[in-house]
Amino acid sequence: MRRVVEEPIQMTEELSFDYTKTSPEALVPIVPYVGCLVSSEEFSIVTHEFRRLVPPNQKLQLAISLTLPESDYNRNLGVFQVRVELLTINGNITSSSSQPCILRFKSSHIRFVETFLKSMFLLAGYSSETQDLSLRMRGLTEGTKPTICIRVTLEQRAEFRPGAGIPEIYSASMKFEVELPFFKRMIWNWRKTVFIWTSMMLFIMQLLILLVCCRPVIFPRGRSNGDTPRGP
């Protein structure tokens, strides 16, 4: 099974957004021994010897998780945009994806009842007034040049001036996974079942071959009564 299909590459990283920029962004290096250095105008990377992590033209699955406080600012903010970009060693963008994001709506009555029911847990610190949002970024493909870093950017709507319309965030994380081809993905998802059935089929085939080739040894024929030699 290890020779037929390899384990898909997966990694989970915490995101630390730089709020000193007009559009806060976080850089996540995906290649070992590579550091990402970002200046105010250009993107540069200090790199050493490294091997390519993702094969060319391979589809990628990327999920962004955001934890936002249910503050008046975030509720009044409305929709904001989350953009993901794959960067090469010289800072070129090989693939990008963008999705809108917004807090789930709750009316004032629902919020009052929910706060009343959770008041003891809120006061004790076992619960908090937050919402967890999950975004699945689609359409990302590895280019011919290897991807060194992934850049995640928070973008405001067009009606806001530069630097405004950015949500308040407690924490954020990114889950990165390489999508296997269809055939390999099916084998990987059903690897235990395929392993068991393949083992059973091989065992049955070996047993049949053993019965056919070694039948006289396993089931020896006895002599019949008519072939019993008679005495003088």
Automatic annotation (TrEMBL):
| Domain of life of the organism encoding this protein | Eukaryota
Report membrane topology. Answer: Multi-pass membrane protein
Q: Name one GO cellular component term.
A: endoplasmic reticulum membrane
Its annotated compartments are: Endoplasmic reticulum membrane
The record's principal subcellular location, in a coarse class, is endoplasmic reticulum
A GO term (biological process) for this protein? lipid metabolic process
Q: Which keywords does this Swiss-Prot/TrEMBL entry list?
A: Endoplasmic reticulum, Lipid metabolism, Membrane, Transmembrane, Transmembrane helix
Q: Which InterPro entries match?
A: Seipin
Question: Where do the TM regions start and end?
Answer: 194-218
Protein name as catalogued: Seipin
Q: Which organism is it from?
A: Ensete ventricosum
Q: What is the lineage of its organism?
A: Eukaryota, Viridiplantae, Streptophyta, Embryophyta, Tracheophyta
